[in-house]
Amino acid sequence: MKVNHLEIDGCNGRKISIDYRFKETQKSLTPVIYVHGFKGFKDWGASNLVADSFASQGFLFLKFNFSHNGVTSNNLLDFVDLEAFGMNNYLLELKELGIVIDWLEASELNIQFSKLVVIGHSRGGGIALLRSAQDKRIKNTITWASVCNFEARFPVDVSEWKQKGVQHILNGRTMQMMPMYYQFYESFIENKQILDIPYQSKKIRQNVMIIHGTDDKVVPFSDAEFLVSLITNSTLVLIKNTGHTFDVKHPFEMNHLPENMLKVIDTTINFLSE
To answer: What stretches of the chain adopt beta strand conformation (E)?
Structure first.
Protein backbone atom coordinates (compact mmCIF):
# COMPACT_ATOMS: atom_id res chain seq x y z
CA MET A 1 0.00 0.00 0.00
CA LYS A 2 1.40 3.39 -0.99
CA VAL A 3 0.40 6.33 1.25
CA ASN A 4 1.25 9.97 0.57
CA HIS A 5 0.73 13.11 2.67
CA LEU A 6 0.77 16.71 1.49
CA GLU A 7 -0.66 20.17 2.02
CA ILE A 8 -2.28 22.51 -0.46
CA ASP A 9 -3.52 26.07 -0.13
CA GLY A 10 -7.03 26.43 1.22
CA CYS A 11 -9.12 29.49 2.03
CA ASN A 12 -7.99 32.56 3.97
CA GLY A 13 -4.33 31.60 3.88
CA ARG A 14 -4.86 28.29 5.66
CA LYS A 15 -3.72 24.87 4.51
CA ILE A 16 -5.71 21.78 3.53
CA SER A 17 -4.02 18.58 4.74
CA ILE A 18 -4.42 15.63 2.38
CA ASP A 19 -3.49 12.00 2.44
CA TYR A 20 -4.17 9.49 -0.30
CA ARG A 21 -3.40 5.82 -0.68
CA PHE A 22 -3.56 3.15 -3.33
CA LYS A 23 -2.27 -0.28 -4.20
CA GLU A 24 0.44 0.00 -6.84
CA THR A 25 -0.68 -1.29 -10.21
CA GLN A 26 -0.35 -0.50 -13.93
CA LYS A 27 -4.12 -0.05 -14.12
CA SER A 28 -5.63 3.44 -13.90
CA LEU A 29 -7.48 3.75 -10.61
CA THR A 30 -10.89 5.20 -9.79
CA PRO A 31 -10.36 8.16 -7.43
CA VAL A 32 -12.47 8.56 -4.29
CA ILE A 33 -12.54 11.76 -2.22
CA TYR A 34 -13.83 11.45 1.34
CA VAL A 35 -15.41 14.51 3.04
CA HIS A 36 -15.49 14.52 6.85
CA GLY A 37 -18.30 15.99 8.92
CA PHE A 38 -18.81 18.48 11.75
CA LYS A 39 -16.32 18.05 14.60
CA GLY A 40 -14.62 15.54 12.33
CA PHE A 41 -11.24 15.31 10.64
CA LYS A 42 -9.57 13.03 8.13
CA ASP A 43 -7.91 10.80 10.75
CA TRP A 44 -10.95 10.48 13.00
CA GLY A 45 -11.72 7.00 14.34
CA ALA A 46 -11.10 4.20 11.87
CA SER A 47 -10.65 6.46 8.84
CA ASN A 48 -7.32 4.91 7.89
CA LEU A 49 -8.76 1.40 8.01
CA VAL A 50 -11.66 2.58 5.87
CA ALA A 51 -9.21 4.12 3.40
CA ASP A 52 -7.18 0.90 3.32
CA SER A 53 -10.34 -1.08 2.56
CA PHE A 54 -11.06 1.02 -0.53
CA ALA A 55 -7.43 1.08 -1.67
CA SER A 56 -7.17 -2.71 -1.38
CA GLN A 57 -10.13 -2.98 -3.77
CA GLY A 58 -8.43 -0.94 -6.49
CA PHE A 59 -9.42 2.64 -5.65
CA LEU A 60 -7.24 5.64 -4.97
CA PHE A 61 -8.71 6.91 -1.71
CA LEU A 62 -8.10 10.54 -0.75
CA LYS A 63 -9.19 12.16 2.50
CA PHE A 64 -8.50 15.67 3.69
CA ASN A 65 -8.97 18.18 6.48
CA PHE A 66 -10.92 21.33 5.77
CA SER A 67 -8.57 24.21 6.54
CA HIS A 68 -10.87 25.54 9.28
CA ASN A 69 -11.83 22.27 11.01
CA GLY A 70 -9.70 23.01 14.09
CA VAL A 71 -6.91 20.45 13.70
CA THR A 72 -3.51 21.35 12.30
CA SER A 73 -0.80 19.64 10.30
CA ASN A 74 1.29 19.37 13.44
CA ASN A 75 -1.57 17.97 15.49
CA LEU A 76 -3.89 15.87 13.34
CA LEU A 77 -5.89 14.29 16.16
CA ASP A 78 -6.85 17.20 18.42
CA PHE A 79 -8.74 20.47 18.12
CA VAL A 80 -5.90 22.86 18.86
CA ASP A 81 -7.00 25.74 16.60
CA LEU A 82 -10.38 26.73 17.99
CA GLU A 83 -10.19 30.15 16.37
CA ALA A 84 -10.13 28.49 12.94
CA PHE A 85 -13.00 26.22 13.99
CA GLY A 86 -15.06 29.24 14.98
CA MET A 87 -14.43 30.91 11.62
CA ASN A 88 -15.44 27.90 9.55
CA ASN A 89 -18.62 27.90 7.49
CA TYR A 90 -20.46 25.92 4.82
CA LEU A 91 -19.32 28.12 1.96
CA LEU A 92 -15.65 27.64 2.85
CA GLU A 93 -16.12 23.88 2.87
CA LEU A 94 -17.96 23.90 -0.46
CA LYS A 95 -15.12 25.92 -2.00
CA GLU A 96 -12.42 23.73 -0.49
CA LEU A 97 -13.94 20.52 -1.79
CA GLY A 98 -13.67 22.18 -5.20
CA ILE A 99 -10.03 23.06 -4.50
CA VAL A 100 -9.26 19.44 -3.65
CA ILE A 101 -10.98 18.27 -6.83
CA ASP A 102 -8.95 20.84 -8.80
CA TRP A 103 -5.73 19.52 -7.27
CA LEU A 104 -6.62 15.92 -8.05
CA GLU A 105 -7.55 16.77 -11.64
CA ALA A 106 -4.23 18.57 -12.17
CA SER A 107 -2.19 15.80 -10.53
CA GLU A 108 -0.19 13.26 -12.49
CA LEU A 109 -1.58 10.35 -10.51
CA ASN A 110 -2.52 7.21 -12.43
CA ILE A 111 -6.27 7.70 -12.14
CA GLN A 112 -9.38 7.75 -14.30
CA PHE A 113 -10.48 11.20 -13.24
CA SER A 114 -13.66 10.89 -15.32
CA LYS A 115 -14.86 8.30 -12.77
CA LEU A 116 -14.43 10.64 -9.78
CA VAL A 117 -16.33 9.56 -6.65
CA VAL A 118 -17.13 11.80 -3.68
CA ILE A 119 -18.19 10.30 -0.34
CA GLY A 120 -19.42 12.58 2.44
CA HIS A 121 -20.28 11.76 6.03
CA SER A 122 -22.91 13.74 8.00
CA ARG A 123 -22.34 17.45 7.31
CA GLY A 124 -19.77 16.33 4.74
CA GLY A 125 -22.59 14.53 2.96
CA GLY A 126 -24.42 17.82 2.58
CA ILE A 127 -21.27 19.47 1.22
CA ALA A 128 -20.78 16.57 -1.22
CA LEU A 129 -24.34 16.96 -2.49
CA LEU A 130 -24.01 20.72 -2.93
CA ARG A 131 -20.75 20.25 -4.85
CA SER A 132 -22.31 17.56 -7.02
CA ALA A 133 -25.14 19.90 -7.99
CA GLN A 134 -22.65 22.34 -9.53
CA ASP A 135 -19.63 20.21 -10.46
CA LYS A 136 -20.04 17.88 -13.42
CA ARG A 137 -16.57 16.42 -12.83
CA ILE A 138 -18.10 14.26 -10.09
CA LYS A 139 -19.35 10.97 -11.53
CA ASN A 140 -20.84 9.27 -8.46
CA THR A 141 -21.81 10.63 -5.05
CA ILE A 142 -22.29 8.61 -1.87
CA THR A 143 -23.53 9.98 1.43
CA TRP A 144 -23.06 8.28 4.79
CA ALA A 145 -25.52 9.52 7.45
CA SER A 146 -25.94 12.83 5.63
CA VAL A 147 -27.93 15.82 6.76
CA CYS A 148 -30.64 16.98 4.34
CA ASN A 149 -30.99 20.65 5.27
CA PHE A 150 -28.42 23.02 6.74
CA GLU A 151 -30.90 25.77 7.58
CA ALA A 152 -32.98 23.45 9.76
CA ARG A 153 -29.97 22.89 12.01
CA PHE A 154 -29.71 26.53 13.06
CA PRO A 155 -31.48 27.70 16.23
CA VAL A 156 -34.87 29.29 15.65
CA ASP A 157 -33.83 32.42 17.56
CA VAL A 158 -30.33 33.69 16.70
CA SER A 159 -30.68 37.05 18.48
CA GLU A 160 -28.44 36.12 21.43
CA TRP A 161 -25.86 34.62 19.07
CA LYS A 162 -25.88 37.83 17.04
CA GLN A 163 -25.58 40.00 20.15
CA LYS A 164 -22.66 38.06 21.63
CA GLY A 165 -21.01 37.36 18.29
CA VAL A 166 -20.26 33.79 19.31
CA GLN A 167 -21.92 30.72 20.75
CA HIS A 168 -20.14 27.69 22.19
CA ILE A 169 -20.95 24.02 21.78
CA LEU A 170 -19.61 21.27 23.98
CA ASN A 171 -17.47 18.60 22.42
CA GLY A 172 -18.57 15.62 24.48
CA ARG A 173 -15.42 13.65 23.66
CA THR A 174 -12.82 16.29 24.49
CA MET A 175 -15.01 18.41 26.83
CA GLN A 176 -13.86 21.49 24.92
CA MET A 177 -16.24 24.39 24.43
CA MET A 178 -16.04 24.91 20.68
CA PRO A 179 -16.69 28.48 19.45
CA MET A 180 -18.95 29.20 16.51
CA TYR A 181 -18.86 32.85 15.50
CA TYR A 182 -21.96 34.54 14.17
CA GLN A 183 -20.33 34.76 10.74
CA PHE A 184 -21.29 31.09 10.34
CA TYR A 185 -24.96 32.04 10.24
CA GLU A 186 -24.37 35.26 8.27
CA SER A 187 -22.44 33.36 5.62
CA PHE A 188 -25.30 30.92 5.23
CA ILE A 189 -27.94 33.64 4.88
CA GLU A 190 -25.82 35.59 2.39
CA ASN A 191 -25.31 32.46 0.26
CA LYS A 192 -28.58 30.75 1.05
CA GLN A 193 -29.48 29.53 -2.43
CA ILE A 194 -26.12 27.91 -3.19
CA LEU A 195 -26.15 26.28 0.29
CA ASP A 196 -29.78 25.12 0.16
CA ILE A 197 -29.48 21.32 0.04
CA PRO A 198 -33.12 20.59 -0.86
CA TYR A 199 -33.09 23.18 -3.66
CA GLN A 200 -29.71 22.14 -5.03
CA SER A 201 -30.39 18.41 -4.72
CA LYS A 202 -33.06 18.67 -7.40
CA LYS A 203 -30.29 19.69 -9.82
CA ILE A 204 -28.11 16.65 -9.17
CA ARG A 205 -27.71 14.39 -12.20
CA GLN A 206 -25.02 12.09 -10.85
CA ASN A 207 -25.79 8.62 -9.56
CA VAL A 208 -26.23 8.98 -5.80
CA MET A 209 -26.29 6.34 -3.09
CA ILE A 210 -27.60 7.40 0.31
CA ILE A 211 -26.57 5.15 3.22
CA HIS A 212 -28.00 5.69 6.70
CA GLY A 213 -28.22 3.84 9.99
CA THR A 214 -31.70 3.11 11.31
CA ASP A 215 -30.65 4.03 14.87
CA ASP A 216 -28.99 7.35 14.03
CA LYS A 217 -29.67 9.75 16.92
CA VAL A 218 -27.65 12.63 15.43
CA VAL A 219 -29.20 12.80 11.96
CA PRO A 220 -32.56 11.00 11.77
CA PHE A 221 -33.23 8.44 9.08
CA SER A 222 -35.99 10.71 7.77
CA ASP A 223 -33.23 12.98 6.39
CA ALA A 224 -32.14 10.14 4.11
CA GLU A 225 -35.68 9.49 2.97
CA PHE A 226 -36.14 13.18 2.16
CA LEU A 227 -32.94 13.28 0.10
CA VAL A 228 -34.04 10.28 -1.95
CA SER A 229 -37.31 12.02 -2.71
CA LEU A 230 -35.39 14.98 -4.15
CA ILE A 231 -32.56 13.37 -6.13
CA THR A 232 -33.52 11.81 -9.45
CA ASN A 233 -30.92 9.05 -9.74
CA SER A 234 -30.69 8.08 -6.08
CA THR A 235 -30.76 4.84 -4.12
CA LEU A 236 -31.39 4.50 -0.38
CA VAL A 237 -29.71 1.81 1.70
CA LEU A 238 -30.45 1.45 5.39
CA ILE A 239 -28.08 -0.26 7.78
CA LYS A 240 -30.08 -1.78 10.61
CA ASN A 241 -29.23 -1.43 14.29
CA THR A 242 -26.46 1.12 13.88
CA GLY A 243 -26.04 4.81 14.56
CA HIS A 244 -24.41 7.90 13.14
CA THR A 245 -20.86 6.56 12.79
CA PHE A 246 -21.76 2.93 12.04
CA ASP A 247 -20.29 1.68 15.34
CA VAL A 248 -16.93 3.43 14.87
CA LYS A 249 -15.65 5.55 17.77
CA HIS A 250 -12.74 7.89 18.37
CA PRO A 251 -10.17 7.00 19.43
CA PHE A 252 -10.48 3.69 17.60
CA GLU A 253 -8.46 0.98 19.32
CA MET A 254 -9.36 -2.15 17.34
CA ASN A 255 -7.37 -3.39 14.37
CA HIS A 256 -10.48 -4.36 12.42
CA LEU A 257 -13.63 -2.54 11.40
CA PRO A 258 -17.04 -3.12 13.01
CA GLU A 259 -19.46 -5.27 11.04
CA ASN A 260 -21.79 -2.37 10.25
CA MET A 261 -18.95 -0.20 8.92
CA LEU A 262 -17.91 -3.12 6.71
CA LYS A 263 -21.48 -3.25 5.40
CA VAL A 264 -21.28 0.44 4.52
CA ILE A 265 -17.99 -0.06 2.69
CA ASP A 266 -19.13 -3.19 0.84
CA THR A 267 -22.40 -1.50 -0.18
CA THR A 268 -20.50 1.51 -1.46
CA ILE A 269 -17.94 -0.52 -3.42
CA ASN A 270 -20.65 -2.71 -4.95
CA PHE A 271 -22.50 0.41 -6.06
CA LEU A 272 -19.36 1.80 -7.68
CA SER A 273 -18.60 -1.51 -9.37
CA GLU A 274 -21.94 -1.78 -11.15
So the answer is: 2-9, 15-22, 30-35, 59-65, 117-121, 140-144, 166-170, 177-181, 207-213, 234-239
pLDDT exceeds cutoff 90 at 172 = no
How far, CA to CA in Å, does 210 sit from each of 29, 142, 207?
A: 23, 6, 10
Bridge partners, residue 143, by sequence: 120, 210
* Gap between the Cα atoms of 170 and 160, Å rounded: 17
**89-147 confidence digits (pLDDT tens):** 999 999 999 999 999 999 999 999 999 999 999 999 999 999 999 999 999 999 999 99
Q: Cβ(147)–Cβ(126) under 8 Å?
A: yes
The bridge status of strand 177-181 relative to strand 166-170 is antiparallel
The per-residue pLDDT for range 15-35, each reduced to its tens digit, is 999 999 999 999 999 999 999
Cα 208 off chain centre by: 15
CA pair distance 118, 250, nearest whole angstrom:
23
Percent of residues, the chain, with pLDDT higher than 70: 100
Q: How many CB atoms lie within 10 A of CB 223?
A: 24
CATH 3.40.50.1820 assigned to domain 2-80+89-150+195-273? The reply is yes
Question: What size, in residues, is the chain?
Answer: 274
Please list, in sequence order, all residues whose beta carbon lies within 8 angstroms of the beta carbon of residue 44, skipping any fewer than 6 positions away. 36, 250
Model confidence pLDDT, tens digit, residues 64-73: 999 999 999 8
Coil, helix or strand at residue 222: helix
d(CA 151, CA 175) in angstroms, rounded, equals 26
Domain locations in the chain as residue ranges: 2-80+89-150+195-273
CA 189 vs. chain centroid, Å, equals 22
Angle subtended at Cα 247 by Cα 246 and Cα 248, rounded to the nearest 5 degrees: 95
